């Protein structure tokens, strides 16, 4: 048989593996091709993540259905740590293991392209991250609507804003893909995990500042004003449910000509009559309170998430254009 | 049959295959109609390059000893065993008698071997040269 | 079974191949050709660029300069045929079982030959349910070889395939490899620095040294154009009448000289001549990096008119 005949076998028909009939059992399994390989290689960490998320979701759903709030704070802290854990334990080692053991060479010298390998690994990883974070986000958001009634956590606070809606998904994806890129650049598992730990912690800190100092400033501030005067007990007007009052130090009193007066107004008086007189003298007609209504929460979350997803897309592009050639 | 390829004796593997096949033909280990091991078999058992085996078989084919049958393998065409070369032939008896006379004359084993080699050289020198030429012409 | 000895089709053609790493050139101006169906030894000292050359052929690395064609096409392209590359470390997933490792080959390679792969594994009595991490070196190499051969490659690239094996496993696996090559007409290129490993195994040779090709061609042809000369030295040097023959290497011990020459005409004189063995030939070239390189006609890269080939190499 010459090499010419062996070349012609490329056109051989029949499903691969059928030649081994009656030998190794051919179990028909749902996964095939590169997807099978990636799932098989990382199945331990994938199942761990999915299992842990399922347990957490079950706990939250149970507590919520019992109308309990016990464990709410530790859970919210756990959720904030999740992007860090995922980045360090899933993202950073995704390729470094293959680069360290040489299995990257094994995979890229099979008949499938490197792009296919990179795409499949990133896609399956993203799928696992999205499934687990979406489940947690939905469950936690449901729990929060119960807790929210006691106004302990406003929607603008980090533990609420970052742990519900699209935010946990976006934060986790960015942390994990950042970890993957760090791994591909550094090529060493341990070093990549340490650097990814630093990276994901910095992402959390920077994001908190970004949320407090930039993102919320984009929200439309709604002002509620009253004209029924201000009583000695300083009972403020009631805000809509879930609204977040901004800037307590803002001048809360409004005069008939629309001027705002600060908290110091008529502070020195001791009696109710004197206070009422003083207020009248100052021409205060009522309250003026600024707040962020909860209706803006969703829009802001999607805006923040899209910023993070755009960054994730940039990291992915970097992996494809810079990293692909170095995956051996 | 199985070829014993010695990597250390300096004789090229293809010549070892040719020699061992001829030896088998002489001894009657291989008879006409027998199939020689395929290049794959030789490669598997003796770790010899299949092209080397095929080259040896072409040499045997050139000498008219074997013939390839496409798709079936290489088969023995004729034998090298001769009745007069067996140990019960008169020639062998004469040789035994001569060797015992040589021993009586005080010759050592090496002396006898040298005499036999020298006599063979004289008789078969022309034939050896032909073989050497054939060998060279097979180089590609 | 055809002989595969024809010089017609090229399995590999390298034209001015060069590879530069940060520390310098690992390969420079490498041009040679390997006819299809050959079993070729790639020989050279450590650091000669063997692994780099194999990696370029396997499409793992991109050359800095020059071009390479595998069965007439660029490496990695659809027309380049199937190429299997068994790297020196023979990386496999340690947590996979043997059966799963073969499944990897099946899932990632269209045209996978499960029977061939299983037979190779079975011939070594390697249990299919054993984890790769628990196997011995020889068993691991066997599984890696099964993975490489199950792909039914047209070109099989092996980097120091038998370096860490005991003699029994080495002979057994060499036999398996050669038998598969015989059955499918696979072209094999295997690097090694154990010269004894090549004897009887290779019918073609490429010697790399200092990043360049020193010697390339059919083994019989290479041996036939060289002559080993032994005799008494003249004065302090080789006999003057030997001087007009191109010299590869000479050594003097006591009154005797030994020289490997590439005679243009019969080298007759007051000395003994002999054909060199493969090992003597290789050692002589490896020891004398300044000897004139020899690339026999069948090993010379041909000028090609393929569009991607932008470089012409003087033959």
Task: Characterize the structure shown.
The complex is a heterotrimer of chains A (328), B (140) and C (315). By secondary structure, chain A is of the alpha+beta class. Helix content of chain A is 60%, strand content 6%. Chain A has two domains: 33-218 and 296-326, no CATH class; 222-295, no CATH class. Chain A has helices at 3-8, 33-65, 72-91, 93-101, 103-108, 114-147, 158-161, 167-186, 189-215, 272-281, 297-323, and strands at residues 222-225, 244-245, 253-255, 260-261, 284-292. The two termini of chain A are 34 Å apart. Chain B has 140 residues and is mainly alpha-helical. Chain B has helices at 13-27, 39-46, 50-62, 90-104, 109-137, and strands at 66-69, 73-76. In chain B, strand 1 and strand 2 form a beta hairpin. In chain B, helix 1 packs across helix 3 (50-62) and helix 2 (39-46) crosses helix 3 (50-62). Chain B starts with 12 loop residues before the first helix and ends with a helix. In chain C, 24% of the residues lie in helices and 28% in strands. Chain A binds chain C through residues 1-7, 9-10, 12, 16-20, 23-24, 32-34, 36-37, 40-41, 101-103, 105-112, 325, 328, and chain C through 1-2, 4, 9, 11, 36-37, 55, 58-62, 71, 81-85, 87, 89, 91-96, 99-100, 102-115, 118, 128, 151-152, 154, 183-187.
